[in-house]
Each structure stands twice: as C-alpha cells, then as structure tokens.
C-alpha cells in the first residue's frame, strides 16, 4: 500500500549534524504555523530561499509567530553564551574575547540578541546552505 502523508502528522527528519540543529528545527516549526509563510515556503524554489527573498516574508507573519521566534532566539543566544563561557573557562589566558567567540556563530545575528528579524532567517538559511554545498 502506498499510504501518503497524513495532514498534521509529524515527519521525523534526520539529524542535520549542525550544532544548532534543534534551533533550526524549532524555527522551521514555528514558521510553518503561519499559513501565509507556509504557503510561500511551499511554493519557493531553492534559489529564492538561498537568496534571502523568502526571509523578507518574515515581516508578514503574525505577531504571535514573531513573539515565539524572538523567544527562540533569546534561548539560542543564552545557550551559545553558556557554550562560550565554558570554552572561555577551559582556555583561560588565551586572550580571546567574548565578541570574537560570538562571531564564529554565523546562524544568527549576535549583535541583536533579543529579536528574530529577517536578517536572522537569512543568516540561518545561509549557514545551513554553506554546510551542504
């Protein structure tokens, strides 16, 4: 029997191997709750996604979705800060500062740690794309 995908059924995706895999999945899940964005995502081709055209659609999602994305970003920034602190503690006296460590995380805009903006979505897409070139 060829049973198709049932609406509302969760499809388990394999782990991407990215250190921000959980964040990526959560962002996608939240964005797909917005009907307009989900439709744009389903009709967009890979070049539209990679170019950042899809990221501009973020301005049109509902307030609830933006609030949830802001919350996810703050959680991810807190997680990264914890990782940075652990790394700094383990490499004392190397002269590496906090900002230098933050710059290695290219999947979000670390200069704006509080809100999820189109630039964040664009950076997340580009980071994933660069990993799979």
Automatic annotation (TrEMBL):
Query: Might you report a single GO cellular component term?
Result: Golgi apparatus
Q: Where in the cell is it found?
A: Cytoplasm; Golgi apparatus; Membrane; Secreted
In alphabetical order, the GO MF annotations are: calcium ion binding
Where is it mostly found?
A: cytoplasm
Highest taxon of source: Eukaryota
Q: Which residues form the NUCB1-like N-terminal domain?
A: 7-128
Q: Which UniProt keywords apply?
A: Cytoplasm, Golgi apparatus, Membrane, Phosphoprotein, Repeat, Secreted, Signal
Could you identify this protein by its name?
Answer: NUCB2 protein
Where does this protein come from, organism-wise?
A: Turnix velox (Little buttonquail)
Taxon lineage? Eukaryota, Metazoa, Chordata, Craniata, Vertebrata
Q: Which gene encodes it?
A: Nucb2
């Amino acid at each position: 029997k060829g049973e198709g995908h049932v609406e509302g059924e969760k499809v388990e995706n394999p782990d991407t191997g990215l250190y921000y895999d959980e964040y990526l999945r959560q962002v996608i899940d939240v964005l797909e709750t917005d009907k307009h964005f989900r439709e744009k995502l389903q009709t967009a081709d890979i070049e539209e996604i990679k170019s950042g055209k899809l990221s501009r659609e973020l301005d049109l999602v509902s307030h609830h979705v933006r609030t949830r994305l802001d919350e996810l970003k703050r959680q991810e920034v807190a997680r990264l800060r914890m990782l940075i602190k652990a790394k700094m503690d383990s490499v004392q006296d190397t002269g590496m500062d906090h900002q230098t460590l933050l710059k290695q995380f290219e999947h979000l805009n670390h200069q704006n740690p509080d809100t999820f903006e189109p630039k964040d979505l664009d950076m997340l897409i580009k980071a994933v794309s660069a990993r799979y070139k």
